[in-house]
User: What shape does this take?
Amino acid sequence: IMCVEVPKLKLNNGKLMPAIALGTYLGFDQGGVVKSVNKQLANVVMNAIDIGYRHFDTAAIYETEEEVGEGIRKKIEEGAITRDDVFVTTKLWNTQHKREQVPLALKQSLNKMGLNYVDLYLMHWPIGLNDDYTFSDVDFMETWRGLEDVQKSGLAKSIGVSNFNLDQLRRLIKEASIKPVAIQVEVHPQMIQSEIIEYAKSESMVVMGYSPFGSLVMRYGMQFPGPKIDEPILVEIASKYNKTTPQVVLRWQVDRNVVPLPKSTNLKRLKENIDIFDFKLEQYEIEKINQFHNNVRYTLPSFWQNHPYYPFEKIDNPQDNPFLNKRKQ
Ligand code: NDP
Assistant: This one.
């Protein structure tokens, strides 16, 4: 089996992060309920390790921690890798934002994964919620103290945030005692995140890019407006390097110092997505792809938009809250 050697980025605390991660969010069912554990995912993770993936991105809310952990543990038992060879990222859910809840939440995640530490623990959102999903007034800086606690106790080697806007990230860095190593946000040709990337660079933080393919792929069985897999501008670049357009879009992220988190459960596409470390885009090609930017977000939880820490722009007709549907069932 082909095994790609993935380069690593040095974090601001000296630790190393592999430059691409496998995304493991398997999406929502039609009713908006989080899908139950996908019984195939442990095998996908094992195949991914054979191919060269060394970084896995999961979260408590994805309900995939068990299977991600199972795949990694089986490969360690086989002797294919050691725990040190893999980088595991998981995330704290919004209903566990009180300082004293953070170590408990991470211990639950670790129990599910069967691991005794994670490499990176992220605050999934700056938004604190109560158990019944009503808004909690817990400040994200209180939550950050809890993340600092789990790094100090060794349950997490590094800590960071996801879905913070620039102002929130600035405040976090100003008030933190442990600086975040990474921020995870949506990054694709229609959401190029230049400001966050530039600020993160100035603070020696890594940007992790979620939903990296943007409109190139079908999402939830739907096509969204924007560049497609056969977009001529992307095809022209791809044919120059003898690559596919999804590979070009992933490489565009790597060349902008973003760690992409492509999700695939398909063996062929798992291989395709990691095979991006033998070419490099030119600056003018990066800028051509940047031209697709039009501020489209695929993750826009407008049902939280009246929360004081909602990070994104408000819209006129907010969506119903799928988590409330989940609670009723
Ligand atoms: P992606 O951009 O990774 O798109 C995934 C889709 O693309 C799947 O349908 C997949 O299908 C398809 N696909 C994968 N590779 C290819 C390819 N080479 N050619 C054509 N189609 C392809 O989006 P996601 O929204 O899933 O995001 C990726 C990860 O980011 C998540 O799994 C999660 O880990 C993270 N994330 C984090 C969020 C946060 O709030 N922090 C929010 C959203 C995502 P198939 O599996 O069949 O290949």
Remarks:
- The radius of gyration is 19 Å.
- The pocket of NDP is lined by residues 23-25, 57, 162-163, 184, 210-213, 217, 246, 261-266, 269, 272-273, 299 (CB under 6 Å).
